[in-house]
Amino acid sequence: MLYLYKIKQHFSPIAVATSSSLSAGFFYFFTEEERLFRANDRPFNLSYHYADNAIKTSKYNLFTFLPLNLFEQFQRLANAYFLFLMALQVIPQISSLSWFTTAVPLILVLSITAVKDASDDINRHKSDKQVNNRMVKVLIDGELRNEKWLNVQVGDIIKLENNQFVTADLMLLSSSETVCVCFITLTSIALSGEVRCEPPNNRLDKFKGTLTLDGQTYSLDNDKVLLRGCTLRNTEWCFGLVIFGGPDTKLMQNSGKTTFKRTSIDHLMNVLVLCIFGFLASMCTVLAIGNGIWEVREGSVFTAFLPREPGANAALSSFLSFWSYIIILNTLVPISLYVSVEIIRLGNSFFIDWDRKMYYPKNDTPAQARTTTLNEELGQIKYIFSDKTGTLTQNIMTFNRCSINGKAYGELFDFSGQRVEITEKTARVDFSWNQLADPKFTFHDHSLLETVREGNPEAQAFFRLLALCHTVMPEEKKEGELYYQAQSPDEGALVTAARNFGFVFRSRTPETITAMEMGRTVTYELLAVLDFNNVRKRMSVIVRNPEGKLTLYCKGADTIIFERLHPSCNKLKEATIGHLNEYAGDGLRTLALAYKDLDESYMDEWRQRHHEASTAMEGREERLDELYEEIEKDLLLLGATAVEDKLQDGVPQTIEQLAKADIKIWVLTGDKQETAENIGYSCNMLREEMKEIFVVAANTADGVKEELQRKMFPEAAEEPSVKKARAGLFWLQKTETVQDEKVDGDYGLVINGHSLAFALEKNLQLELLRTACMCQTVICCRVTPLQKAQVVQLVKKYKQAVTLAIGDGANDVSMIKAAHIGVGISGQEGMQAVLSSDYSFAQFRYLQRLLLVHGRWSYLRMCKFLQYFFYKNFTFTFVHFWYAFFCGFSAQTVYDEWFITLYNMVYTALPVLGMSIFDQDVNDRWSFQYPQLYTPGQLNLYFSKKAFVLCMMHSCYSSLILFFIPWAAMHDTVRDDGKDLADYQSFALLAQTCLLIVMNIQLCLDTYYWTAVNQFFVWGSLAAYFAITFTMYSNGMFLIFTSSFPFIGTARNSLSQPSVWLTIFLTSLLCILPVVASRFLFVQLRPTINDKVRCHMTQTIASLLYTPSSQLSSMVVEVKTLKGVTVWIRKEFVHCVIIIKISVKHYRGRWTLTKLLN
């Protein structure tokens, strides 16, 4: 049977999307008002110049790559700045540095980025070529011919076969199956079919059009369309009419640019780089003024051997020196900063992808970092917005209880009327009498089966409705072996329940539904399907039974159904409401069921109006909604269903851990209030010990305002406190922040969807945010997808905090895209949430590892990288600044030109990358043991404007030491043989050697976690420095390139002197000693949470390594490692320490544990 790819709330499980571009944002743009074409009439269709079926996702070709890529790269401020510097360096009156000092780093950065972009684009070219050259059968001149995809045109009729990709957006014409959705003959449409439809757009869930055939007009909607990017399944072949091709297809229309998410550190870096530009300009201005003063006072003395050019004066010299110092001090603006940041993010993304502890073997689903630009933001999350069904729960539904005609079924009671707990040993209902029953289905209340088999009309009508009112597709490979393909687990569970109780859904066609009712085959004529959507929250079918009776069957949310009941059902409604509240209190998902008998004459008239509305090109949805509202009223209540959706493993523990990390979790769900509350208690979000749980359920704006104005602190203000400020680049962005207020105890907030609609209005939204943020837990129930996104945007706007949204279905996509970080759960609801997300995995419990381990490590690494990067560059540059006062402000460099060229690219690049990719303050188990380690990231404690200023002050101190100590040591110094040592080359070599050694020592002090890679990078960079230095300062290099390597013999002459090494030692000591002392004092006097945990971890390991044998028996327990080695570990540390490889020795009455790895 053919199962169409229907995009409503999720992807169909058997129609597979093949492109992640479905996740792109929604940008509505149209190039035509209406599309008109004829079937199999190429000359007519080509006159409209519709796009063909070729796609192009690549950006460049062989000729445009270089100019376009360079143009894109030079749009970045830093690259354009360094290009400007390189232009200045070719002006001899300005530059005292060779052009290559800027050109080599710039070319290297541009090359790395260009290679990455070229690699990405080559892959896109290969993908485009592969897709465009696929073959498909096209009906041309009355015969099927094999054509490439790129040659397919709008209006062509093509034939697809099983497991073949859908070539373009198609209107389904016919298939090998008798239950095809469309039943138009291929011959008739090929001769005279004309289609009018909407223009190309990216709305995956909607399609409007009409087909005119033999004078008759037929409605076309999304159910009759196959979308490009899907795979044809469960049918041998089908014919389709091409509606949209290539770039006009829904898939490609959704591949537009999404909103580019940037981290808070990115925004801060932009501001800091702007400040650095200003600081650089001020430094150059000071030095330029100094040059002018020096030229006036001292310059005339040197004109005897340095004559001035004609027309040159102090003012011109000062002007030129300004630009010269712009060139020399350019390292304040680090060219390699952004490239290094991207490399670090890429490395941390790989760690997420490779984490086996986030791999779900049941579904063979690993964690996936779908973006590489947001890793450090994972370490700063303050608010989590979570869906419930499929995110906190398994989304595997089981029919648990039901209410039929006011009587509840599904629970067991003993003779005294007390409820009996149902366990695995409880006797199950025997369905062996039903040969078509699902053997996996379990139910324990025998009275329900007895009621049905006795012929109770209400009970039979109840299950008849469940067997008819749905969109499930059956599959029967063998006689009696039924498999249901359901769009949602709820529908599958309900249809399966009806199947076991004797009402078996067997098959369907576009016009009929066939069911087996208590052993009797009954075929119903299907007159209309009133689809479910998130606004209607109900579904109806209108059928005619074999006796000719017309009936509308409806199921949906209880609040929606109850509004449409006939007054005669009031008493039954009250009884059913009581059962629904009981079911919701037990955490079950509920639906209400109702029906209505219809009059034949009314139905004929309604169907005519329905046809007119469904074929209308303007206002189709509104007209259909009015018709649905008209017919779905005065319903008669049958009862209600309750299905169970169990929590995923580890959800309560994960929420508890995240709460300890001071992360607030808000649950946004479409379920009933009672169901949501029950899940809240099950997840440990709502607790009995909470001081109060507020429920906001008013139906008016004034009522909502009154319920929101709760006093949780005696001295709380009447109105929310809002702080206004400016932020962003050039401080142009105005921000408003609702201030946190003190709370007297723990509170919870539960708010309904209709109340939330009032609360999100402009005059109440701050009151909502104030109250919600004062509560420990917030649960919003009966909310729409739009409301989910609005809540996220409200918190983003007025709390200035980092938000994360997590969900598993299409109704969560808007929320996922609205948050700073979106996480998709790959579960039962398809892949739409995953395709829209930044990170994805299979289980909610993996979220704590993503945040508390990977997120925290990524944030810590990025902050340490930025602090160290700015420190090493500022220190390097400030030495030039001090040297200016000793060289007459002549813009002479203090270092060798080759050292300037290689400093950032070679000597200091790899060590800092090693630290920034591999460093850990504590391992993952200690991160779980102390979730409070996460809070510094929320407060931006590791890198901020204050931290940047402190970094500059540290650099200033280090630069003073690195310049004046070597200068003083070299002043009037002689070699061992009495010859002078004090010359410019020797001083430059000493200063740059001291600088590099100090930078490496500082990096070693900043590194917590050492690996072989870190060791190799640190020692390798030092070895590379000395090897390159001795090579460049050798006689051979001077003889070959005399002008480029003037420091001949400096290295062997200077570094052979003990005084030089003593100076290096003294300089390094004076630079590092204050750092060590200050850190020691801070750890002792004002320790951070990291300091405390690291101290405790060190003491733990020390106590494990060295424990007196007399105390061992009472303090330790026996543990077996994975390799079967028996060891003993202190009892209180068993839960947080794992011994991977260890040997136990007895030495002088003490136990020593060696080779301990965490």
What would you say about this model in short?
With 1158 residues, the chain is an alpha+beta fold.
The class by helix and strand makeup works out as alpha+beta
Summarize the main sheet.
Answer: 9 strands, mixed
Q: Estimate what percentage of residues fall within beta strands.
A: 15-25%
Low-confidence runs of at least 5 consecutive residues: 1-30, 180-188, 1112-1158
Q: How many helices does DSSP assign? A: 37
Helix coverage percent of residues? 40-55%
- C-alpha end-to-end distance: 55 Å
Give the mean pLDDT.
Answer: 82
Strand order of the largest sheet: 11-34-33-32-12-26-31-30-27
Shape annotation:
elongated
Total DSSP E strands: 39
Rg for CA atoms: 37 Å
Q: Can you lay out the helices and strands and say which pair or pack?
A:
Layout: E1 35-38, H1 42-46, H2 65-73, H3 77-89, H4 100-132, E2 135-140, E3 143-148, E4 157-161, E5 169-175, H5 186-192, E6 194-197, E7 209-213, E8 216-220, E9 225-226, E10 237-244, H6 250-253, H7 264-297, H8 314-328, H9 337-353, E11 368-369, E12 381-386, E13 393-404, E14 407-409, E15 412-413, E16 419-420, H10 446-453, H11 457-468, E17 473-478, E18 481-485, H12 489-500, E19 503-508, E20 512-517, E21 520-530, E22 538-544, E23 550-556, H13 558-562, H14 570-585, E24 589-598, H15 600-614, H16 620-631, E25 636-647, H17 651-660, E26 664-668, H18 673-682, E27 692-696, H19 701-708, E28 722-727, E29 733-738, E30 747-752, H20 753-759, H21 765-774, E31 777-781, H22 785-799, E32 802-807, H23 813-818, E33 821-825, H24 832-835, E34 839-841, H25 846-884, H26 897-907, H27 909-918, H28 924-929, H29 935-938, H30 945-970, H31 984-1006, H32 1012-1032, H33 1035-1040, H34 1050-1054, H35 1058-1085, H36 1089-1105, E35 1106-1108, H37 1109-1115, E36 1116-1120, E37 1126-1130, E38 1143-1147, E39 1150-1154
Parallel strand pairs: 12-26, 12-32, 26-31, 27-30, 30-31, 32-33, 33-34
Antiparallel strand pairs: 1-6, 2-3, 2-4, 4-10, 5-9, 5-10, 6-7, 7-8, 11-34, 13-14, 13-25, 15-16, 17-18, 19-20, 20-21, 21-22, 22-23, 23-24, 24-25, 28-29, 35-39, 36-37, 38-39
